[in-house]
Amino acid sequence: MAIEWKGIFPAFTTKFTAADELDLPLFGKNLQAQIAAGIDGVILGGSLGEASVITTAEKETLTKYAVEQVAGKIPVVMNIAEGATAEAIRQAKLAAAWGAKGLMLLPPMRYKSDERETAEYFKAVAASTELPIMIYNNPVDYKVEVTLAIFDQLQAYSNIQAVKESTRDVSNVTRMISRFGDRFSLLCGVDTLAMEEMILGANGWVGGLVCAFPAETVAIYKLTKAGRIAEALAIYRWFLPLLELDLHPKLVQYIKLAEQQAGLGSELVRAPRLALVGEERTRILKVIDSAIATRPVLPDYLSL
């Protein structure tokens, strides 16, 4: 399956049981709800998927299960966030063997690579696989910026096709389009900037709160791209207090709690993360439950 890098790609959470094992039935329930809502692909093993605490064996289980569940309807994309180039290459080979149709690729973890090192890392992984790749550009959280100069070099690799744009500078969408035209598909990776970046020309949205609210997320994308801005904006304004949960260091706990309240997940996380307690949990629940109580009626966005 070739990937059309546009639309809504949830950064999927990893569901756990109370015994700290993978909860595949709950994972599958959410995934089917996402497909029914009209998502365009799913990303596994990212930051929101608690990648740093899941094993390679668990990643294999999740990827194979997701591939089976989607049954060819949408592509399964596996995230790679490794410290060593050799391990990133190994993970790319495993992803292909497990049935993933694409990769999301971060710069090297735990070492702040310079421009030359970052470019060579991406080139090495791209040269090792035929899978299409989306580069994750998030200098705020990961301290390495994928610059225009780096993307200029990456143009030579036909399987580097898309960018998860998380610089938190909406002007970067315009910079990328002005420099490269449509060479790279751009997907917003910051929930609170998604509509703004799509209006500026971004092709889609790698979402976090979509895990709990898939229909509303897809509706905003479809309405925006159809030019029905006022309708999209009304949903987006309702959504913003929820979307802001994506910006916090505890985004995993916050979004998993939202999934639980929406009936699509549970708040169980893997240590060292801990489920929310006390005033913090009460405060976040108020944001989530208030939004659910005022959930907008959506137009027939799937027909757009």
From TrEMBL:
InterPro entries: Aldolase_TIM, DapA-like
SUPFAM superfamilies named in the record: Aldolase
GO cellular component: cytosol
Keyword terms of this UniProt record: Lyase
Active site per the UniProt annotation: 136 (proton donor/acceptor), 164 (schiff-base intermediate with substrate)
Signal peptide bounds: none
GO biological process: N-acetylneuraminate catabolic process
Pfam families named among the record's database cross-references: DHDPS (PF00701)
MF annotations from Gene Ontology: N-acetylneuraminate lyase activity
Annotated binding of pyruvate, by residue: 206
Protein name, as recorded: Dihydrodipicolinate synthetase
Gene source species: Chitinophaga pinensis (strain ATCC 43595 / DSM 2588 / LMG 13176 / NBRC 15968 / NCIMB 11800 / UQM 2034)
